[in-house]
Design brief:
- The chain has 332 residues and is mainly alpha-helical.
- It contains 15 helices and no strands.
- The N and C termini lie close together (9 Å).
């Protein structure tokens, strides 16, 4: 697929998202986005947890370590389903103390300690910079895999556009702490679009790989050292105690990340307009995580079966598999 067509589609998508976010802002100003509708948008916006690298990395992890990839989704899922009081308490504190970040929260928790808040802000910045670099690396790799020329230059342009989007919808007035429905709508659209594409690729992979979900389960347990061809042959179970410990440890880290990552605190807490919308938002977010988690399985099984992926341990199999089968539209 020509580079100009790929970039044109990306530009049209960004324009569409921007226009829809502006429309959402106007609707919110008129009081037309509220109640259950806003709760659903809030739940979808929480899908920002599933970043580009989270999606690519989950498939790569499933290829290398089987079900250990579940930790990426299991951590936030457990938090959303079984610890609602944490988010409710954080939102209540946000409304009471007008909090706008994790730094504000910790500063208010320890007696309005401005020095502590500044220290937390600096630590957050130091932690976020390499994380953003990882996301941009994922985007650069994706553009390179799909055949775009000069991917680094386009990634830098994309980063600049994201800064402008943030300034437009995220920090219009730094003196106020208010919910930004335009930002929530923008994130919800992006999250929904990402989920639809992932499910479409999962259905495509399921059709190609054949077999039943039980066959897929056995293939996931077999590990990357076996040929994951679904022909009914006996497979050796390579799940070990190390896999179990890794799953538990990564689940704990993912649970903490779902609460403390700056973007998750921003969406889950700061952008929550009403405590009453949290229950439905948590259910929508949980459903989102479950669908994304299940979608990884047929994609990983197809990739591990060697049915069209150039590199069996590649984190970019989500793109390389459709390209290897001349499915440029799916890769795009």
């Amino acid at each position: 697929m020509p580079s100009y067509l790929i970039l044109l589609c990306a530009a049209l998508y960004l324009c569409f998202v921007y226009a829809l976010a502006r429309w959402g802002e106007r609707r919110a100003a008129l009081g037309l986005i509220r109640g259950r509708g806003r709760a659903v948008l809030h739940g979808l916006a929480l899908g920002v947890y599933c970043s580009t690298w989270t999606v690519f990395g989950a498939i790569g992890s499933a290829l290398r370590d089987g079900y250990v990839y579940l930790a990426i989704y299991l951590g936030p899922l457990l938090v959303a389903l079984f610890t609602p009081m944490i988010w409710e308490r954080l939102v209540a504190l946000k409304q009471r103390h007008r909090l706008a970040s994790v730094a504000d929260f910790l500063g208010a928790r320890y007696g309005q300690a401005g020095a502590l808040a500044a220290l937390v802000a600096l630590v957050s910045l130091a932690a976020v910079v390499p994380y953003v670099a990882l996301q941009l690396t994922a985007l650069s790799g994706a553009l390179r895999a799909i055949g775009v020329l000069f991917p680094t230059a386009w990634v830098l342009l994309f980063a600049l556009l994201m800064v402008l989007f943030t300034l437009r919808f995220g920090v219009q007035d730094a003196r106020t702490v208010a919910e930004r429905t335009g930002l929530v709508l923008l994130l919800s659209i992006e999250s929904l679009f990402k989920l639809i594409i992932l499910l479409a690729l999962a259905l495509w992979a399921a059709f190609l790989v054949g077999g039943t979900p039980l066959d897929w389960h056995q293939a996931m347990l077999a590990g990357p050292s076996n040929a994951l061809v679904l022909d009914g042959l006996a497979r050796q179970n390579h799940w070990t105690a190390l896999n179990t410990f890794s799953l538990i440890g990564q689940t704990i880290l993912a649970a903490a990340a779902s609460l403390l990552l700056p973007r998750m605190f921003q969406v889950a807490v700061v952008e929550c307009a009403d405590l009453r919308e949290l229950k439905l938002a948590r259910l929508v977010f949980s459903s989102y995580l479950i669908l994304a988690c299940v979608a990884v399985i047929p994609i990983a099984v197809l990739a591990g079966a060697g049915t069209g992926m150039p590199s069996p341990d590649s984190d970019f199999s989500l793109i390389s598999m459709p390209l290897a089968r001349a499915q440029s539209a799916l890769a795009l």
